[in-house]
Amino acid sequence: MAEPPTTKTKNSTFSTAALAAKKQTAFDSMMNASKRKDLTAESPQPRKKSTYQVSWRKLLGDAIDHPERDSRVFYYDDDFSFVYDKYPKASVHFLLLPRDKKLSMAHPLEALKDPIFLAKVRVAAAKLKASAAKELQRRFAKFSKQEKRRLDILNGVLELDDDEGLPGSRDWEKGIRVGVHTHPSMEHMHIHVISKDMFSGYLKHRKHYNSFHSRFFVNLEEFPLGEDGENKRKREIWHWPDVDMICWRCGKNFKNKFTQLKIHLDEEFDEWKAE
Ligand SMILES: [Zn+2]
Ligand SMILES: [Zn+2]
């Protein structure tokens, strides 16, 4: 695999404020560099099968073993690699991969029972969520009513009133979900950080949609699940790909009508951007 064009920063822990600040800066600049490289298309479009299908599993292995060599990794430390999902199912879709071999091979519902690991995941996921929100803002603020006055002022179209501060920006983090699958299909444990919109050329089946917008998806906030919660989730999943598809935004039930849902998702995407 070709050497990525950006340099990567390797730091050891999340422990001190100074390190955290340093990492945040490195992380931001990496995000900026990667944005230019990778995240320009509005809707992720599938590439030819031959170039990507073979190696996803291997790639996740590389991403945790040799993050410095892997162009999909845009940030890493001793505990986690942050990667772009190779088959994004929404306009923004990142993965958080634990690098510890034992954790990487564990079932997420099992691994996240450990309060220490859960706490680490929360810290890392919060960073990734903030980056995902920034990415939404960078791409979609120009469509958003809540951003209009602020952008007009920044662009010099409007002037601030004397006693007025610059209006705050829209809370784009509301558009991001963080969580795991109750029955993950990939070998390496991963935590999804994904925008709600499900606007992507890679979203092709009911299963893809329901992976993220049904009880099959467990939000990170729901942890710890407790014994009962976990058993309940596990019981619920046996028929999960066949449950009705419910619009993430308006709650409309599309049953098994995927094509209709896709058309509706495009409309909802436009309206959501415009909020
Ligand atoms: Zn997954
Ligand atoms: Zn809807």
Model description:
With 275 residues, this protein is of the alpha+beta class. The protein has a single domain, classed as HIT family, subunit A (2-Layer Sandwich), CATH 3.30.428.10. It has 10 helices and 6 strands. A 6-stranded antiparallel β-sheet has the order 1-2-3-5-4-6, with helices on both faces. The termini are far apart. The N terminus is likely disordered.
Number of helices: 10
CATH architecture field? 2-Layer Sandwich
- Describe the global form: globular
Within the largest sheet, what's the order of strands? 1-2-3-5-4-6
Number of strands: 6
Strand percentage, roughly?
Answer: 5-15%
CATH overall fold name: HIT family, subunit A
Largest sheet, strands/sense/barrel: 6 strands, antiparallel
The helix/strand series, from N terminus to C terminus, equals HHHEEEHHHHEEHEHH
Cofactors, ions and other ligands in the entry: zinc ion
Give the helix proportion (percent range).
40-55%
Q: What is the CATH C-level name?
A: Alpha Beta
Q: What is the CATH homologous superfamily assignment?
A: HIT-like
Mean pLDDT: 83
Instruction: Give the C-alpha Rg.
Output: 19 Å
Structural class: alpha+beta
Number of domains: 1
Low-confidence stretches: 1-27, 29-41, 49-54
Descriptive key words:
Aprataxin-like protein; 6-stranded antiparallel beta sheet; single chain; mismatched DNA binding; alpha+beta; 6 strands; 275 residues; globular; 10 helices; binds zinc ion; HIT family, subunit A
Could you give the topology of this structure?
Elements: H1 17-38, H2 49-52, H3 56-65, E1 73-76, E2 80-84, E3 93-98, H4 101-104, H5 108-111, H6 115-140, H7 145-154, E4 176-181, E5 191-195, H8 206-212, E6 217-219, H9 226-236, H10 258-274
Antiparallel strand pairs: 1-2, 2-3, 3-5, 4-5, 4-6
EC number: 3.6.1.71, 3.6.1.72
GO biological process, one term: single strand break repair
Organism: Calycina marina
